[in-house]
Amino acid sequence: MRHEIEHTPSYSLLEVTxxxxxxxxxxxxxxxxxxxxxxxxxxxxxxxLKGLKRALLSGExxxxxxxxxxxxxxxxxxxxxxxGDIRHLHLENQELFLQKGAYLxxxxxxxxxxxxxxxxxxxxxxxxxxxxxxxxDLFFNSFGDIQEVEVDGEYVVDNGYAVAxxxxxxxxxxxxxxIRSFLFSDQILLRFSGRGRVxxxxxxxxxxxxxxxxFRPKRRND
Amino acid sequence: xxxxxxxxxxxxxxxFHLAPGETVRAVSGAMxxxxxxxxxxxxxxxxxxxxxxxxFLGGAxxxxxxxRGPSNGGQLSLAPTLPGAIQSVKLDGGTFWLTAGSFLxxxxxxxxxxxxxxxxxLFSGKGAFLIQASGRGEVWFNAYxxxxxxxxxxxxxxxxxxxxxxDPSLDYKIGGMGGLKQTLFSGEGLVMKFSGRGCIYLxxxxxxxxxxxxxxxxxx
Amino acid sequence: xxxxxxxxxxFRSALVHLEGxxxxxxxxxxxxxxxxxxxxxxxxxxxxxxxxxxxxxxxxGGESFFMSKYRTTDGGRGEVGLAPTLPGEVHEITxxxxxxxxxxxxxxxxxxxxxxxxxxxxxxxxxxxGESMFFMVARGVGPMLVSAFGTVxxxxxxGELTIDTSHLVAYEGSxxxxxxxxxxxxxxxxxxxxxLAIHFQGxxxxxxxxxxxxxxxRRLGPLLPQRG
Lengths: 222, 220, 228
Description:
heterotrimer, B: mainly beta, four-stranded antiparallel beta sheet, 16 strands, globular, C: about 230 residues, mainly beta, seven-stranded antiparallel beta sheet, 17 strands
């Protein structure tokens, strides 16, 4: 599989070129355009329960598509939901933690599972993240530009802005008394320590969700 | 009339320098700032789809504002709702197709008409109409995200939300990606299968994708 | 204190480098990354004055109820990263003590510790467009950061200028303005969707943004899940 990340860093698009028989996986809805000659199979990867767990805990789409090329040289363009960048990582039997909503595309040897990291005593308050493992290519996206921080010691990143980080880093969750509006509870800070990379994005989906709240349709009590 | 596009590719903005009495039209709500005496009038786009069908239009507007240069000339700045690149095409009697939300502005010699997409498009919530621009003059359109101009000679399957504009020489079919299960569950919504020879303008973001990404973060 | 504007494509954010007794404030929630030696003091106060009423006024103005004040714990060097909510640019305005600056609709991002921030009620003028009725007023000496949806453009007013209210980022206090309709009649204004305009008069600088947050909200919002 060849790949190219274009129109970076603002509205990056991923274009993959597949050999005959080669496959690539993405969440339903990520495909922007594709050549003809590609089989698309929709499934909940790993079975219904696993798909459900991934969706509920992680906010990723319930369904995944596997694209298989029927002929060589076919191209597929994948577009993330938010404005921002795309990063490629090649995993060699490695692990990576990914923010929900950041997963874009992966090759077949890569597995994703949902992880929930609770905040002491608070159910439903915490981090919903994806744990990505295996061997193959991973493409993840950001809201905003991506700032790579090499942590050697300690560093603090707000939960909404931490896109991905290496498992060599340990982290502590703490609440910041940081109320953007009366309606939503405090944001969570990640205090990283150790040595490893954190990919930080410069915009937060939590902040945007908070901001857009008054524009959402009201629930009608019929 | 002088026009300039600034801010491409991230935040395209269209600036007009209008001579006295010169007019230009733009989709309503697009005005950023202008010389104080520029005249503004509201108009409605022609065609079958009426404004009460707003529910199916995906929020894109059918109303057009007509701006007129004041007695000592004036400036006008326009930008679309969603950020991205702006581009223009010049028409000399020909036609050009735009998707709802992509049309930004046109000179007075251009006729604008809405065309109904077909019932299948209603379910996608992406906007059920196309805009046909024809006549003599210039049309400015915008992309959500980056704009890709692609010369097609063959076939291409495009998620409808990523189509910006295209030449009339291209044939297209609207449908799901495969069977019904594919359509409902694949999450791709509707696709346009283009074939033939001509130019298609694609955008690298689509509003449905942004909604799908943000929805899990929306509580309350 | 040194402010570094990180700029990549469509996105800008600010990295404020603090040293010694430097302090910086921002609306709570704007901090996205920081070195571990940064102390965050969450308060409703800005430069001595505070209280719940100011917090409420800020909320109504589209800003956060709380402000955060940053300084390093050890008097050494540290950094605080501040990020806006929407895609777009961040711009630094230097206040010289002579003119005050007014920011609109959530554009205020942060300011140096010596700058006094207050909210100002604009009356019912802001009512129709859904833009906030409160502006933030900044006075003093030092840097102030504003954010924009899209690009920031500085316009010099020398006479008259009309701006769609949702494109206003900030303006110099020396300017006068009236709020009115854009088109010839109210009906026309409503139909044309152009909404409310701010007509500036006098001499001074105005910062405008290329895209309108409320328009973006109205396009995106209705497609999101219902709220209770």
